[in-house]
Design a protein that fits this description.
This protein is of the alpha/beta class. The protein has three domains: 138 residues, Response regulator (Rossmann fold, 3-Layer(aba) Sandwich); 153 residues, Alpha-Beta Plaits (2-Layer Sandwich); 246 residues, Alpha-Beta Barrel (TIM Barrel), CATH 3.20.20. 48% of the residues lie in helices and 22% in strands. The chain is built from 20 helices and 24 strands. Strands 15-16-18-19-20-21-22-23 form an eight-stranded mixed beta barrel, surrounded by four helices. Strands 2-1-3-6-7 form a five-stranded parallel sheet, sandwiched between helices. Strand 1, helix 1 and strand 2 form a beta-alpha-beta unit. The chain starts with a strand and ends with a strand. 36% of the residues are buried. About 1% of the residues have low confidence.
């Protein structure tokens, strides 16, 4: 038996076809063939099966090799085409080669046929392999490797096309921006392999719930985009609700655990007045986060003048301002005194202390308070960068102060606030240690602080971080204690040195008996735990006197000293 070969013979002479087949068999091939002699029959043959090779005569009634080449090129450009003719001239042969023929053979020299076939079959195999690689590369360029959904690049290209269609033909489309709720829990409890598998399953689920003409894309992380083409607003909301409910009902099973999640969806209509791809995506993103802020697992529709979206847009703008201010070094270090509550200024065994605060300068030199830019920094994950700036600036100032005073300066310690994002940064402690060592400051002169709610949110990680800080020689404070309504029992497990009583209770303790009782209870529990207590938001002498009588160690607030810029030593 010879080697199998499927051959489409385009030949009007049956005798010539038999000669070709005999030549192939003599060369070690076992051809399975079909002979056609017109365009219609050849088109049908190319549609009904795959062919290894096409051998075509040049001249046939109302049909020639140029017509055959065109049909093969349209069906499968990788199929080798060999022209075998008794009348083809050199000029016609050159033209045929330029049109896609791979070789031409004269009928009086069929000895060349088998070598030509073997060569072209090998070349065709190489061409197909190259084409598959190119298709794979092209697919990878426009698809997400994890979910096989369209990626952000391709999604934006299709969105750009939809925007142009809306402007030119006044057709309506819609964009959905989806962000999974509680996805981090799965990653944290079961690992990223489980999280990746969840994303793959959800990609299939989302794709099944939309129309064939719609595009589902993974935009990054646990965020998805859905482009609904030719879809009015009311229908878009129905589809969005279908997706929200499908995700809500979905149960992800991983090993012995069953997880349920939700999804927040931002929806924006695309009309003839819609602007750029960037602005439409930004608006949908803002609507999505508004849905999260309003309780998660819901849909928020973008509308001009929406108060929630106006806040979101403002925060996005502030995020850009913060990044630029960091690049241009437009942040300032301030400090606020923390004084002993007792008149003799020896409460708690220490003297005057300070808390470092941060301010931002705008481009015109104006001062911007933290309550304006900190929410945006927290939302857009800029707090670790801002915390690093503060730690570096504070350590630099303390080093200069230490050198100037001959190491007999202000007793301290100096308090530095840290965000929850920085506590979650595995490299942040190493950065602190580097700063303390690099600037050569006594570690005991620095006290880091986090809020109670941040500490309790990830208790085991917080405790480990605090232990590392204290082993370095620095101190630690729990800020805004009482605001999170956490149990006092947490003080048994969190190894801190100071307890800062939430100012919301301190402010009104002179007129509100309940606030007074809460401050008193926190102070007593703090002392039992061996901690020094600091009352925040002390705004007048009457409050300070009550705190002193209560036995609170330190006081801080506008009634004690307003924040002042840190002066160069």
């Amino acid at each position: 038996m010879g080697k199998p070969l499927s051959v489409l013979l385009v030949e009007d002479s049956e005798d010539d076809a038999l000669l070709l087949l005999r030549q192939l068999r003599n060369g070690g091939w076992e051809p399975e063939y079909l002979r056609v002699d017109n365009s219609e029959a050849m088109q049908m043959a190319l549609k009904t099966r795959d062919w290894d090779l096409v051998i075509t005569d040049h001249n046939m009634p109302r049909f020639d090799s140029r017509d055959a080449l065109a049909l093969v090129k349209a069906a499968d450009p990788d199929i080798p085409v060999i022209i075998v003719s008794g009348t083809i001239g050199e000029e016609i042969a050159v033209t045929a080669m330029k049109s896609g023929a791979h070789d031409y053979i004269m009928k009086d020299n069929l000895a060349r046929l088998v070598p030509a076939v073997e060569r072209e079959l090998k070349d065709a195999q190489v061409r197909r392999a190259h084409r598959e690689v190119e298709q794979t590369i092209r697919h990878m360029a426009y698809h997400d490797p994890l979910t096989n959904l369209v990626n952000r690049i391709e999604f934006e290209r299709r969105l750009r096309r939809a925007l142009a269609d809306a402007r030119e033909h006044r057709r309506h489309h819609a964009l959905l921006y989806l962000d999974l709720d509680q996805f981090k829990i799965i990653n944290d409890t079961s690992g990223h392999i489980a999280g990746d598998e969840l994303l793959r399953q959800l990609a299939i689920l989302l794709h099944e719930k939309v129309r064939d003409r719609d595009t589902v894309a993974r935009l990054g992380g646990d965020e998805f985009g859905v482009l609904l083409e030719h879809c009015p607003a009311d229908h878009a909301q129905q589809i969005a609700e279908t997706l929200r409910q499908a995700v809500k009902d979905f149960r992800f099973i991983w090993q012995d655990k069953v997880f349920s999640i939700g999804v927040s969806i931002g929806l924006i209509g695309i009309t003839e007045v819609s602007s750029s791809v960037k602005e439409v995506l930004s608006a949908a993103d803002m609507a999505c986060y508004a849905a999260k802020d309003l309780g998660r697992n819901r849909i928020h529709v973008y509308t001009e003048g929406d108060a929630e979206l106006a806040l979101r847009r403002s925060e996005m703008q502030w995020a850009s301002h913060i990044t630029q201010a960091l690049e241009e070094d437009r942040f300032l270090l301030y400090q606020q005194a923390i004084l002993p509550a007792a008149d003799d200024k020896t409460a708690g065994g220490g003297g005057q202390q300070y808390e470092f605060l941060v301010r931002m300068r705008d481009k015109d030199g104006g001062l911007i308070l933290p309550e304006v830019f900190i929410p945006a920094a927290e939302r857009y994950s800029l707090m670790p960068a801002l915390d690093r700036w503060v730690v570096n600036a504070a350590c630099s100032h303390l080093a200069a102060l230490h050198d100037k005073t001959g190491r007999t300066g202000k007793p301290g310690p100096f308090f530095i606030n840290l965000s929850g994002a920085s506590l979650g940064d595995s490299t942040f402690f190493d950065f602190i240690r580097q700063m303390v060592q690099q600037h050569g400051i006594p570690p005991e002169s620095v006290c880091f602080e986090v809020t109670e709610t941040v500490a309790i949110a990830n208790l085991s990680h917080t405790v480990e971080f605090i232990r590392e800080i204290r082993e370095l020689g620095c101190r630690f404070a729990l800020d805004d204690f009482g605001s999170g309504m956490s149990s006092f029992s947490y003080l048994k497990t969190i190894p801190v040195d100071y307890l800062k009583i939430d100012g919301g209770f301190v402010q009104h303790m002179t007129t509100d008996p309940m606030d007074y009782a809460i401050v008193e209870a926190i102070n007593q529990i703090g002392h039992v735990a061996g901690l020094r207590t600091i009352a925040e938001f002390v705004e007048n002498e009457a409050t300070r006197l009550k705190l002193r009588a209560m036995g609170v160690d330190y006081v801080q607030g506008y009634g004690i000293e307003r924040p002042e810029p840190v002066e160069k030593p």
